[in-house]
Design brief:
By secondary structure, the chain is of the alpha/beta class. The chain has a single domain (16-307), classed as NAD(P)-binding Rossmann-like Domain (Rossmann fold), CATH 3.40.50. 39% of the residues lie in helices and 18% in strands. It has ten helices and eleven strands. It has helices at residues 30-41, 53-65, 82-96, 120-146, 170-190, 208-211, 215-221, 234-245, 263-266, 270-274; strands at residues 21-25, 45-50, 72-76, 101-104, 110-112, 152-157, 195-202, 256-259, 283-287, 296-299, 303-307. The protein has a seven-stranded parallel sheet with strand order 3-2-1-4-6-7-8, sandwiched between helices. The radius of gyration is 19 Å and the shape is globular.
Length: 308
């Protein structure tokens, strides 16, 4: 296989996931994008699912340029919609004939601000994307995996924010804690079917969701936060996802694996250490990440600062 510039592409037939089919939600940006490209390079055929269609087009173009043409398809979907999730996972069967790996990765920053001022709709939106999305992805992935009866691997993107307080806004932290526990509960239920369920808990990973266009400033802060001297990259998470998707992890299930440069070893409490808690800045609102939809930030006590 050759890339568009004539160079040799990856030998997908010898990859760790050769012959397997995966669905990755939130697959057009950040961590999800890195997982899609790594899986495809390792021989998998991948359905990338994302709400942001523009990012999806860019992903397909980049996959083709990397010599992965035909290995990746894109499906626009809202992971909080049961109809959308069922359709997106059904694409794996219609396009590639089966489903072996499900990565429930889609995420947003969600509601933030003092608990007394967070809007109920923003709280519900956070849980709809981060928890309902994992539930629906798991529900329909298990049905698809059962059709070929050879088991599978479900990988859920949680967060170190779900392992303790102080590493993220309350709504986000609570939702990610739910993802960790749901992963463990489902691992017990699905073990007899040889379907493994694990969660990855990223630390500070340099993605658009994290830096929000302020990449250099974010880079400068990292040495003050974590023991490991290098910043986390989406590819670091993709490597762990590859392990959990492949044969080397066939006895690994029900785990929440922190990939955080040692951050949880020293205790996060990021908001206080960096003095960046939204409440300290007098802000409240909801962060809609890279969905293509507008985030909303306003001053406390109703003083709106407009969409971002």
């Amino acid at each position: 296989m050759t890339t568009v510039d004539g160079s040799a592409g990856p030998d997908r037939s010898a990859g760790a996931l050769a012959g397997r089919v995966a669905v990755v939600t939130g697959g057009a940006s950040g961590i999800g994008r890195a997982i899609v490209l790594r899986f495809a390079a390792e021989g998998a055929r991948v359905v990338a699912v994302d709400l942001n269609a523009d990012n999806g087009k860019t992903l397909l173009s980049d996959a083709d340029a990397a010599g992965l043409d035909g290995a990746v398809c894109f499906e626009q979907a809202d992971v909080s919609s049961e109809e959308d999730v069922a359709r997106a996972i059904g694409r794996a069967g219609s396009e590639f004939g089966r489903l072996d790996v499900m990565v429930n990765n889609a995420g947003v920053g969600g509601a933030f601000g003092p608990i007394t001022e967070v809007e109920t709709d923003d709280w519900d939106y956070t849980f709809a994307v981060l928890v309902r999305g994992v539930f629906l992805g798991t529900k329909y992935a298990v049905r698809a995996m059962a059709e070929h009866g050879q088991g599978g691997s479900i990988i859920n993107t949680a967060s170190i924010a779900g392992l303790s307080g102080g590493a993220g806004p309350a709504a986000y932290s609570a939702a990610k804690a739910a993802v960790v526990n749901l992963s463990r509960a489902n691992s017990v239920e699905l073990a007899p079917s040889r379907i493994r369920v694990n969660a990855i808990c990223p630390g500070i990973i340099l993605t658009p969701l994290l830096h929000q266009g302020r990449e250099e400033q974010t880079r400068e802060l990292l040495p003050e936060i974590q023991p490991w001297p290098d910043y986390g990259r989406p590819e670091n998470i993709a490597g762990v996802a590859l392990f959990l998707a492949g044969d080397d992890s066939t006895f690994v299930t029900g785990q929440a694996i922190a990939v955080d440069g040692g951050l949880t070893a020293i205790g996060p409490d990021l908001a206080n250490r960096l003095r960046t808690a939204p409440g300290d800045a007098g802000l409240v609102g909801v962060n809609r990440g890279t969905t293509g939809e507008r985030s909303q930030i306003r001053r406390r006590l109703g003083r709106d600062v407009g969409p971002t």
